Amino acid sequence: MATIYSHAVVGVGLARLYAVQPTPWAYWGLAAVLPIIPDLDVFSTAAYGGPLGHRGIAHSVLFALLLSIVTASMTFRCFHVRWWSLMALFFTITASHGLLNAMTKGGGGIPFFWPLGGRCGNWGPIPLSDIAFDLPDPRYSRAVRAELLWGWLPTIVVVGLTVLYRRLTRSERSIQ
Ligand SMILES: [Zn+2]
User: Fold this and answer.
1) Which of 1, 97, 130, 133 makes the best surface tag, with the fewest CB within 10 Å?
2) What is the pLDDT along the chain (176 residues), one digit of tens a residue?
3) For the chain, which residues make up each domain, given as ranges?
4) If you write DSSP's letter for every residue of 118-154 in order, what string do you get?
């Protein structure tokens, strides 16, 4: 796995791209928690590599779809957004977990298209996580350093540029 912190950062980044108006804290909380949920399978007693073990079906697109349908159905009224667009966002956020895991060099492949397809991944360049719930410290963790470069930095750049673009186009509109 990548560290849970990097999954949360990518989730919150995606949620920031979607949010064009002030949004409740619960929204940001879900954006941080949803991409971590697939890794709850580390507590499974099923064999690693099996469907119910770590990197099993909880990392599939189907799981992301079901989780996003349930979560969006429970929350779209609170957030005052359309169900389908919130569901699409939550799906993207949850599915980002498998994608980030597939970017690790090592560990089992990700069964993205379970039950239809096999496993794929190990595309590099992120080392397998060398911390669990410890605070991420780039001085001691090789994985955290790689995730800062390949996960946090692109997220911050894309979100920063998007927010800047929105501000500029909004102020242009208000000038006209
Ligand atoms: Zn994982």
Assistant:
1) 133
2) 689 999 999 999 999 999 877 789 999 999 999 999 999 998 989 888 788 999 999 999 999 999 999 999 999 999 999 999 999 999 999 999 999 999 998 888 999 999 898 898 888 888 888 887 788 888 888 989 999 999 999 999 999 999 999 999 987 666 55
3) 4-175
4) --B----SBPPPS-SSSPP-TTT-HHHHHHIIIIIHH
What spacing in Å lies between the alpha carbon of 124 and ligand 1's midpoint? Answer: 14
- Phi, psi dihedral angles at 120 (to 5 degrees): -145, 165
Q: Is 8 helix (H, G, I), strand (E, B) or coil?
A: helix
**Beta partners for residue 110, in sequence order:** 120
Residues with CB under 5 A from ligand 1 (ion): 1, 39, 101
